[in-house]
Design goal:
Layout: E1 3-6, H1 14-17, E2 28-31, E3 35-40, E4 43-48, E5 52-59, H2 63-66, E6 68-71, E7 78-81, E8 86-96, E9 105-110, H3 115-122
Parallel strand pairs: 7-9
Antiparallel strand pairs: 1-2, 2-3, 3-4, 5-8, 6-7, 8-9
Length: 128
């Protein structure tokens, strides 16, 4: 049985995430017994659940660094963002296969509706 965590889609930013192909209730993070899969329109990051270290809540984003599919300016992290309210930064033991950019991703931030539910499932780690 898979658990699905849809994105918290802030309608003010629909011109950005909507153009990227995100549809409320259809895209988000799915966790099953063997895989964590995050979809953002046509983009998809998938990694074995055993590769997930855990995650932590992040919040207080600036819209220009949070909305859309984004690469971090400081590392190889990837963001699938639909709101500035809050999200979960998920860390990996080994970088997940590159989705955008030139490097594989050591972390993924997702702005799901149920941050605590996702963390209860994948585990919590200390913010980095």
């Amino acid at each position: 049985m898979a658990d699905f965590f849809p994105y918290d889609c802030d309608r003010r930013f629909a011109p950005i995430w909507g153009v990227a192909g995100v549809r409320p209730g259809r895209h988000g993070v799915t966790v099953d017994g063997s895989t964590l899969r995050a979809t953002y329109g046509p983009l998809k990051l998938e990694t074995p659940i055993d590769n997930v270290v855990g995650g932590h809540v992040t919040e207080g984003y600036r819209w220009w660094t949070a909305i859309g599919p984004r690469l971090s300016f400081v590392d190889d992290g990837l963001t699938f963002g639909t709101t500035t309210r809050r999200g979960v930064c998920i860390h990996f033991h080994e970088p997940a296969r590159r989705v955008i950019g030139f490097k594989d991703h050591s972390a993924l931030t997702v702005t799901v509706e149920d941050c605590d539910g996702l963390l209860d499932l994948i585990g919590r780690d200390a913010p980095r």
